[in-house]
Write a structure and sequence with these properties.
Layout lengths: L1 H9 L14 H14 L2 E2 H8 L3 H13 L3 E5 L13 E5 L1 H7 L3 H40 L7 H14 L4 E6 L2 E6 L5 H4 L4 H14 L4 E4 L8 E6 L10 E2 L2
Parallel strand pairs: 6-8
Antiparallel strand pairs: 1-3, 2-3, 4-5, 5-7, 6-7
Length: 245
C-alpha cells in the first residue's frame, strides 16, 4: 500500500498504479550507486549523470519506487524560493542501503574508475583494465601449458582455468567452431558502466586461445551468460578483438 500511495501521489512517469515496472538491472545498479554516493538527487540530475533520457530515468525510478528501493520527497530549499512546487528528489530506502553493503567494493571500484576517467580519459581506463587482467592472463596461461595449439582444445583448458578463478566457465563445440561461456562475472556491476573491463578480458581470451574471438554476450550488459565465439580455425595468434555490446 505504501508503494502504491507513493506512486499515485507523485508518480515519476504518471503511469497507472499497479502497472508492472520494468528496468534494466545494470542501469538500475548504476542509479543505485549514484544515489548511494550523492544522497537526495533529482531525476534530472540522475539522468544527466548517467546519460539517460528523461523517459528512461523515470522508468527506472518508477521501478525502484514500486519495489521499495527509493522514496520520493520534496527538495529542501534554503532561503527564498521561486514560484511553483520544489523539485522532487529521490533517496535510497534503508533496506536498499543494507543490500548495497554487499557491493561495497564494487562501489569503491566504480568510484575509482570514474575518477580515472575524469582525470585521464577513456584511454586511462582501458590501460587500467588491461593492467588488472594481466595477472589473470598469466595464471591462466600457466594452467594451459599442456593444452596444445588447437584453439578449441585451448578453449577447454581455459574454461577450467577460469572456473578455478571463480568464473564458472565451460567450453563446447558448435557448428561454427567453439563457444566459451562464463556463468559468473566477479566485476559485472563495475563493467556495466566501464565496458573496457570486458574488452580487456576478451583480448586476454583471444591471446590465450590463439585466434580471433568474438564476444557475443556479457553479464554486465544484462545477458545471463558471458558468451565468446571461437571460430573453427587454427593458425597464428590474432590479437584483433571485436567486442559486441
Amino acid at each position: 500500500m505504501k508503494n502504491a500511495a507513493a506512486l499515485s501521489e507523485g508518480s515519476v512517469t504518471g503511469t497507472v498504479v499497479g502497472a508492472p515496472a520494468v528496468a534494466d538491472p545494470p542501469t538500475r545498479d548504476r542509479v543505485t550507486q549514484l544515489l548511494l554516493e550523492r544522497g537526495a538527487t533529482t531525476a534530472a540530475q540522475l539522468g544527466s549523470a548517467l546519460g539517460l533520457s528523461p523517459a528512461a530515468i523515470r522508468r527506472h525510478l518508477d521501478a525502484m519506487l514500486a519495489d521499495g528501493d527509493v522514496v520520493a520527497r520534496e527538495q529542501t530549499v534554503r532561503g527564498s524560493r521561486g514560484r511553483g512546487r520544489p523539485a522532487k528528489v529521490f533517496v535510497l530506502t534503508e533496506a536498499a542501503r543494507v543490500r548495497c553493503g554487499t557491493h561495497h567494493y564494487d562501489n569503491m571500484a566504480t568510484a575509482a574508475l570514474r575518477w580515472i576517467a575524469r582525470t585521464g580519459g577513456a584511454e586511462a581506463v582501458a590501460e587500467f583494465a588491461a593492467d588488472q587482467v594481466a595477472a589473470l592472463e598469466a595464471r591462466c596461461r600457466s594452467a594451459m601449458e599442456n593444452a596444445g595449439d588447437a584453439p578449441l582444445a585451448r578453449a577447454e583448458a581455459l574454461a577450467g582455468a577460469l572456473t578455478s578463478e571463480g568464473y564458472a566457465a565451460n567450453a563446447s563445440t558448435i557448428a561454427s567452431g567453439g563457444q566459451l561461456c562464463q556463468h559468473h562475472c566477479p566485476v559485472a556491476h563495475v563493467a556495466a558502466e566501464f565496458p573496457q573491463l570486458c574488452e580487456a578480458e576478451t583480448a586476454v581470451i583471444s591471446r590465450l586461445v590463439g585466434t580471433h574471438v568474438q564476444r557475443l554476450a556479457t553479464i554486465a550488459h544484462g545477458d545471463g551468460v558471458c558468451t565468446t565465439h571461437i571460430p573453427a580455425q587454427s593458425g597464428s595468434t590474432v590479437t584483433t578483438v571485436r567486442t559486441d555490446r
